[in-house]
Amino acid sequence: MKKKFSSLKDITSEMVSSIQQYTFDIQNKIKNEVINTGNKILAEIKEKVPISKNNKNHLRNYFILEIKENEDEIIAYIRAKKKYQIVHLIEFGVKHYWSGTQIIARPFMRPAYNNNINEFIENIKNIIKNGV
User: Fold this and answer.
1) Residue 10 CB: number of other CB atoms within 10 A?
2) What is the DSSP string of 71-118?
3) pLDDT tens string 74-83
4) Domain parsing of the chain, residue ranges
5) Taking the CA atoms of the chain, what radius of gyration do you get in angstroms?
């Protein structure tokens, strides 16, 4: 059933309300996509992180997804709650200066990001373009 408007002011008010609701819906869809992609990346990191056979407290148990948002932006980042001091050493490798011993790089964070970012970008484009 069509609404009947008595004045231009009513029409304008209804248009503004519709645009605000559409914007709110799009923002929520983008927020959900950021969270879903963050969870996918986190799951892949936990799956691919090298684990020690000697230690029951594996590094994979310490990774978490954190969401920071304000009215203009939403940021999802993944970090290690504990043992964060060694994450970059495993990801990029390291060579001890004096002894010459080496830890070979075993990337697990960047590949997880790379495997998911293109799908994320396409989904965001579709949300913006189609409102879906």
Assistant:
1) 12
2) SS-EEEEEEESS-HHHHHHHHH-EE-TTT--EE-----HHHHHHHHHH
3) 899 998 888 7
4) 8-123
5) 23
